[in-house]
Amino acid sequence: MNRKVSRVLVLAGVLALSASALADGKKLAEQQVPKPVLNTVKAVYPKAADVKYEEKVKHGQIVYEIEFKDNGVEREIVYSADGKVLKAELED
Description:
Layout: H1 2-24, E1 26-28, H2 35-44, E2 49-58, E3 61-70, E4 73-80, E5 85-91
Antiparallel strand pairs: 1-2, 2-3, 3-4, 4-5
């Protein structure tokens, strides 16, 4: 019985760590980002530079946070998997 309890606790711990890691974000290569997201970014910001891609979970939904520079302005935009903008921020 103690073995079963130990296994359940270990499994619960692993699952909790996995969930928190994804909530914090997972860095992605461009090839790992859904095509609708890439198409939107490239269409709206064709001169984007220093682009960084991250996958996160927000409110139970997987989203894609894209950070980049556009004409000297730093932008951070969160997209749904189908390429819709969920949140946009810019810094001078």
